[in-house]
Amino acid sequence: MMRLDKYLAHAGYGTRSEVKRIISKGLVEVNGVVIKKDDQKIDETNDEIIVAGAVSNYTKHVYLMLHKPAGVISSNYDPMHKTTKDLIHGYDHLQTFPVGRLDLDTEGLLIITNDGLLAHQLLSPRYHVDKTYYVEFSGDYKAIYTSLFETGVTLEDGYLCMPSHIELLSEHTALLTIKEGKYHQVKRMFMVLDMTVTYLKRVSFGPIKLDENLKKGTFRPLTEDEILALKKVVS
Questions:
Q1: Which residues of the chain have pLDDT under 50?
Q2: Which of 5, 47, 60, 110 places its Cα 20 to 30 Å from the Cα of 173?
């Protein structure tokens, strides 16, 4: 059960004080009954809420795909840089956040949600959710590196990465799939093998692939099938 004023605020009808005024004016009906008490308890799933004559469509959780461009911080606030929240319009009332982070200069797929449990599961080492990156790099790629990626690269601080999978596309491009997300992990994995990442783009997260029609800096809601696939991978 949820307070009516909290429900309306979460549904995007305004701030708490604004929705209190809407309620006090008799503009809200719950199951056909006009309600003027802002602390009225409702069932947000089963009750019919009508505001100013229109049925309210409440969404508790939202799941978005963002094509993050370089130069944008994976955060809701940063005093120096544009953030991913600056790119997401129309969802402020739902308090969304990015699932994990992409470096400032890294592009590609970023999932945005307000589902804290699913976000935690997707990032948890327990579930080993694959994340695939398109990598451009400088330096010489030696044949032995493939087996090193497959068994686990040891970073400069001694941390042994989980086994990953690399697919060379050309002399200096590859697809790398990892199962964790340590700080600057992809760049550091290449660095300890005397190579330098010059461009990095995440192209998939678990079963979700970056929509090729999604331009940099834009987003779209995940489809029902994509949401179900995400939840299934951590079930």
A1: none
A2: 110
